[in-house]
Amino acid sequence: MEKFPVIDLNPYLDCAQSGNGNEAEMQKLCLEVSRTLQETGALLVKDPRCSAQDNDRFLDMMEKYFEQTPEFKRLQERPLLHYQVGVTPEGVEVPRSLVDAEMQQNLKAMSPQNQPSTPTGPDPKWRYMWRIGPRPSNTRFKELNAEPVIPEGFPEWKETMDSWGLKMISAIEVVAEMAAIGFGLPKDAFTSLMKQGPHLLAPTGSDLHHHGQEGTVFAGYHYDLNFLTIHGRSRFPGLNIWLRNGEKVEVKVPVGCLLIQTGKQIEWLTGGECIAGMHEVVVTKRTLEAIRLASEQRRSLWRVSSTLFAHVASDAVLKPLGHFANSALAMMVRQGQGHTCSNTFFSALVQLLPCRTAVSPFSPIPPSETCCNAIKTLGQPCLCVLVNGPPISGVDRSMALQLPDKCATNFDPCNSFLPRLRLWDEWQDGHDGLA
């Protein structure tokens, strides 16, 4: 990623703290942040508060955790909460590119050098979900405040997770402020929506001893549903990203730097001026070289990603901000305002939890009264957002589509209009061919 300049956040932090600074220079720096996010969907930053030593401390602990037996790790598994806390075993997360026929056709139309690797099944990686920051005391989505899961034998767990997670959130908040200024929005346009959001520190662990063959896909081609995603430097290469122009770029994060990528929520908030960045994790020749070196040095062969998902608050309404409300895409959404879902994808998913037994693949169990009440509260637009969105582990879309009839709820079919999520995806298809 030599073509990406590293944005040093220190001048902005100093200016914010002292109140002094060259206003023209700060504006220029903020414009560089917003321009880079808009044109590439990715940004390299250096934050003096997030040191290489902090990242190493976090990676050391996560390597130790992922090296534990599968039986031990499954004690932290919470499938009934859709793996939003605790561990997600390998083979659970399914890349959209594996199951979405429309996306597969779009990928075939890409030039060979820019095509993503083709997964052969679910992602062979583990993940750990750890919530970062305070949660609202008054919210419609209390399920998002599930108790954290701490594995036994890791007394440093909470302090290490919270410390690194809060530092990365701080970096995201500064970038969000700078991006807002660069876009001509109020300084707190994004950060005010992020307050008490369901931020997730979500490191992945990939076993290179068993899955270290060149071409192995640990995370299939996808985008993230959150606001901004931030990655610390991994000890093993393998992350590829796609720029807005469709160019595939191998990520090389300098020591002491962080990589930030745009998610779906910032795409909504900017009326499509920023688009959700596509990415994958694959074993490459550079990964094989790093495996060889780690083996010689008797280091761990678990590839740990230092990843955090920053979200807009669950109760906030996602809509284009400021002048972005006049964009072509925003006007498309307004034309269907009677059929939009004001919840985030994850919030809508949580509301579907009472129906989990009724939407499991081939489930013979009818929806309960609690489930039917949840469907009525969720509403047709949000149900359609869920069934038209990315794959959900343990949810059969056809079973979910049958819920309104089984619950005697008078919903229009989901194919009678394009709910908000699909409007944005189809607009992106027409403009970039990457969704």
Automatic annotation (TrEMBL):
GO molecular function terms listed in the Swiss-Prot or TrEMBL record: metal ion binding; oxidoreductase activity
Location of the region described as Disordered in the Swiss-Prot/TrEMBL record: 107-126
Keyword Transmembrane helix: no
UniProt keywords, alphabetically: Iron, Metal-binding, Oxidoreductase
Annotated Polar residues bias: 107-120
InterPro entries attached to this UniProt entry: Bifun_inhib/LTP/seed_sf, Bifunc_inhib/LTP/seed_store, IPNS-like_sf
Keyword Oxidoreductase recorded: yes
Domain of life of the organism encoding this protein: Eukaryota
Pfam families membership: Tryp_alpha_amyl
Domain Bifunctional inhibitor/plant lipid transfer protein/seed storage helical: 350-414
PANTHER family noted in UniProt: 2-OXOGLUTARATE (2OG) AND FE(II)-DEPENDENT OXYGENASE SUPERFAMILY PROTEIN, OXIDOREDUCTASE, 2OG-FE II OXYGENASE FAMILY PROTEIN
Stated name of the protein: Bifunctional inhibitor/plant lipid transfer protein/seed storage helical domain-containing protein
Naturally occurring in which organism (per UniProt): Chenopodium quinoa
